[in-house]
Amino acid sequence: MKNDYILLTPGPLSTSSRVREAMLKDWCTWDDEYNIGVVENIRQTLVQLATQKNHYSAVLMQGSGTASVEATIGSAVGPTDKLLVINNGVYGARIAQIADYLNIPCYNLSLPETTLPDLSEMNAILASEPDITHVAVVHCETTTGILNPIAEITALAKAYQKTVIVDAMSSFGGIPMDIGELDIDFMISSANKCIQGVPGFGFIIAKKEALKRCQGQARSLSLDLYEQWKCMEENHGKWRFTSPTHTVRAFYQALQELKQEGGINVRFMRYHTNQTMLVKGMRDLGFVPLLSDELHSPIITSFHAPSHPAFNFDLFYQQLKQQGFVIYPGKVSHADGFRIGNIGEIFPRDIERFLSAIKHAMYWEKCHEHTESSLISDHSPSF
Which H or E run includes 314? Predict the structure, then answer.
């Protein structure tokens, strides 16, 4: 089945026809063909993608990416522990919100959404707050597209012997990293991001010893990270509760396609090419990125909304959708704008077509209140 439009979003995102076709078969959750042949294969492959170290393991968790974040925060942070959250966007704020819901003591280092964390400020907090035991940070904050310096943040946290939790929801599989070399304790991502699967579950890749320390600490039955890991370890991939079988099989196919493409480094280059082509093309059309170029990630880019009085995002969105493209509204508190993702089954030729669609949408945006005759005579795409 052909898609009606391309999702230029940070997930869910456009997938290949083969990934979608993989969901057409029903699977038994007790069968070894599924548990060993699919689930265990996925778990092993995820660890291999994440690190060359052999002391890590992967846990799959039903639900959205946020469910996996909540499972990790709620299981890894013990009853006498305290969490430091590096928060420069919606998803950092969500980690702090999870801690609040779970009554976990939390130091919320809240920063402007367009600002990188100040390591000297983080150092001062760790030096003055010895009861902090865990540090959590979002790698790619899709609020803006900013890429946080997880290597530097992790190194500083480890200098104070803290456990490090990285939300790599929108970056894992699309940006090269070795979480073992970085010494990350828990890394969280989701099926429907850079691996290019479909929504339905997330996963945590963590040090085995860190997972063992989670025993008895979970604040939720269904989001007990240790018990989920233990069940998969002891039962060859068996899930504690109902597995999202169709989504899991689609993810297995997506992993095969990542390998066929050439791995994470090659996929990163495709995403990077998409993003640089997009930014140049949008600038040529008069749009201004929210962030400076050195802060951009290859995942998603935020743009200021044009100040022209004729611009209306809802109309702009619908015009693009009619031409086969879906974008995201903005999430920044102090600026009107919108976001365009570069990940998924998206290639440079799609970015070229999208930029052409932008021109057409801008043309109608500028002229939609004019007479039909003026529409015919005015061919300028600029504001």
Answer: helix 313-322
